[in-house]
Amino acid sequence: MKKHKIKVVFICVHNSARSQIAEAYLKSIGKDMFEVQSAGLEPTQINPFVVEAMKEEGIDLSKKQTQSVFKLFQQGALFDYVITVCRDSEIKCPVFPGITKRLNWAFEDPESFHGNNDEILKQVKKLRDRIKVKIQEWIIQVKI
């Protein structure tokens, strides 16, 4: 009998950084246990600093597209977990049908990082590492 994959969507405002990082790590670390997507309230393009930081981890986001959370909602997508990864998205996020657990992991927005390119990349790497730890901890909780 095939085991049900846990369906997860990560949501942030632009689907350009935090949600993309979380999706990539859950796919990578969670392997076949999860079916994962990410989406944004106002999708833009993936942050180039995020692409660079994730490349260090062996994850290529250079060709990854952003998508609208409202398009997923309109398609009738069902998720076991809807996880917002920023403060703004939790309030504006549509309520998905079905039995969905909603979580909010409020990470800072890389668009607010200041400094030269090296300093911004360093901040993005710290954010990336915090998201990775959160994903690792959450996978353990879900397996229990």
Automatic annotation (TrEMBL):
SMART domains: LMWPc (SM00226). Pfam families: LMWPc. Keywords: Arsenical resistance. One of its GO terms (biological process) is response to arsenic-containing substance. InterPro entries: Ptyr_pPase, Ptyr_pPase_sf. Residues 6-141 form the Phosphotyrosine protein phosphatase I domain. Gene3D superfamilies: 3.40.50.2300. The keyword Amino-acid biosynthesis does not apply. The keyword Cell wall biogenesis/degradation does not apply. This is Arsenate reductase. It comes from Desulfonema limicola.
